[in-house]
Amino acid sequence: MSDSPVALTPEDFSPLLERPDKHGISRPSRSYWQDAWIRLKKNRRAILSLWMIVALVAFALLGPLLWQVDPARQDIDQISQAPGVDRSAIIVAPYSAWDGSLLPGMTASPQLHLAAPPTSQAVRLRWEGVPGANGYRLYRNIFPIDDQLAFGLPIAEFPSAAAGYYEDRLDLRPRSYYYSLVALDQNGVPTTEHQTLEAEVVRVITLEEVRERGLVAAESMPGEGDEVFLALHPLGTDYLGRDMLARLMAGAQVSLFIGFVAPLLYVLLGVVYGSVAGFLGGRVDQVMMRFADFVVALPFLLFMILFQVVFGIGPGESGILPMLVALVVLAWPATARLVRGQVLQIREEAYIGASRLLGARSGYLVWRHMIPNTLGVVLVTLTFAVPSAIFTEAFLSFIGMGVAPPTASWGSMSNEGLATMLTHPHELIFPSLLISVTVLAFNLLGDGLRDALDVRMRSVE
Amino acid sequence: MWQYTLKRLLQGVITVWFIATATFVAMHSVPGDPLSGQRAMTEGIRANLEARYGLDRPVTEQYFIYMGNLLRGDFGISFTQQNRQVNDIIREHFPVSATLGVLAILFAALGGVLWGALTALYRNRLPDTIIMFLVILGISVPSFVFAALGQLGLVSINSLLGTSLLPVAGWGTVSHMILPALVLGMGTMAYLTRLMRSSMLEIINSDYVRTARAKGLPPARIFTRHQLRNAILPVITVLGPAIAAITTGGFVVELVFAIPGLGRYFVQAVQQLDYTVIMGTTVFYGAFLVFMVIVVDLLYGWIDPRVRLQ
User: Fold this and answer.
1) Global pTM exceeds 0.95
2) pLDDT (tens digit per residue) in A295-315
3) C-alpha distances in angstroms, A144 versus A124, A141, A151, A157, A179?
4) At what angle do helices B262-271 and B86-121 cross, to 10 degrees?
5) ipTM, 2 decimals?
6) Cβ pair A294:B18 closer than 8 A
7) pLDDT tens digits for range A169-195
8) Residues of B with Cβ-Cβ distance to A303 under 8 angstroms
9) Distance from C-alpha of B76 to C-alpha of B55, rounded to nearest angstrom
10) What span, in angstroms and rounded, lies between the C-alpha atoms of A395 and A410?
11) d(CA B52, CA B87)
């Protein structure tokens, strides 16, 4: 045994051979988030929802740039217009009183007949009288009368049995109307004797109105009988003549603003509160969580309403800020509880102990280990918090405790549409549909995210 | 068990006290005072009104009077209908809301359990897919949209049939209750269906179900005795929040269907800023919901002996 000293060089400490094959990692290494994204991409419903949300955001943000109509501008002459792109109107002479005479070009008949072409300005009716009648009642319907003779409410009544005339100027729209003249007996009771006339009303406008609304260029000189085009309302107008499309876009801004900002704020608050409570533990944790329990015990929507009452909405305010504050104040404890539970669990994990052993400080532990490991849960909570915030906003606005007029919100639009639901259903259906589609998209995305991010929370499929 | 019940009730009382105090603080931090919104009034009338509502006293004294009255179950007098006790309002309108709510809960629970069990049995087949799509839809559509569309649909059906199949709005007979209860329970039913499905799926593959099958029990008996009974348990735990959802959902459903319930009255009071009615109904609803959650929890311990109540 020779013990001559051996001179060691740094080369002696380098690996003898590079042996990549020994590691046995045959696939590329993927991070948690890459893996989650790949799983999410496989979920067609979630991806479709993601695109739907992108489209909704574009509708709210880019829409108003393309469709530059003031959502608060009222037009009393154009209230509750049905959706559509037909907007032509014929220029006619200003309205003048009518003495019941037959206008040139119209033919008289013994039946109920028109004395002039029916226009949205006036429908002029004449009749010759029915033998044995003691008076008449005139009805207007938008559907043909069935054999049960249900006429609805009369628009006029005539005590005389003689020939007569009537001029209808009540809220005429470009559509078909069915006028029915029902004969009355000597007691004034309607008989089955009736004459019905269909009138196809044409939309007209006077020259003065054309000028007032600026429908034609100032220098052009349109005359009577010419066609002009009214303002375009592709989705119709509401009960004050405001453009539905512009209001839906404005409502989308409100709903998505509340839907994104409120959950972001309260989930953040919940994360901070919960992680502090969970990390500190002990007495502090107990006190903090007892307080959270009290807030949870408050009936959520009742207190949202109460908050709205307390804040009050001053003149010129939209009422969005109070709603935001109330949501944040009332909704954070759920996230706080969740995050606290997670942190309590993670705190006991071996890798935290290892990290602490290596000299990591508390701040580093929270920031580097605890928050990233709860992020998946938090993200899922956030996705489900968005539809519930939108729900809450719509609910409050629907009962009149949300945004203040003239601010548009899908909830308040639904409420306004409710009053005219039977005659103009589009005013109810469009905002309701948008709320439902938005909430649906976020719910489906939330389901997809939950399945992709957290194997433990994965719903049983 | 009794000790646990007592403890929960005590906690409930503290929570209700907290709700009452929060309501009081909230209503007293409203800018201005309840009388300033009214018509112009002379000093004398104002002083009289303040004396009538006790607004001339210091806030702390008002608080003690308010709490004292609450303990005696007295919620005060309405601001807008000045001869009406809030107690009378609650006594008159709450039974209507309660009837509607109970019907809705029954409908939601029965429907949820039935559909949930069905989807689990037909897992990943056509009925499952269809029902689960409807469920997602049910969770996503707000109750007021259901109410409005339900009404619209009913009007169309009525006019199509030429007779009144069901009344479109109002209250009084059983036929008035059907559509509002359906509409009110819809969201909760969708939620319960989802819950029931996942709980059922867990149980379908459990050991005791396999044992039951192995010893030759008929499938119907396994379904009712072993699967359904065990799968129902999680549904019971969420009945508390479900009752809360149905109570607040009732506000809009009553509004849409013109039902003279407490919910509609509450919304009207809020819109008219009727302070005493708002405070009274909030505390009443709060106490009701807290109490219902306790009842459901106790019920759960009673139904499932495995759950130790402590």
Assistant:
1) no
2) 877 778 888 888 877 776 666
3) 19, 7, 9, 20, 9
4) 120
5) 0.81
6) yes
7) 887 777 788 888 888 887 777 777 778
8) 22, 26, 282
9) 13
10) 10
11) 17
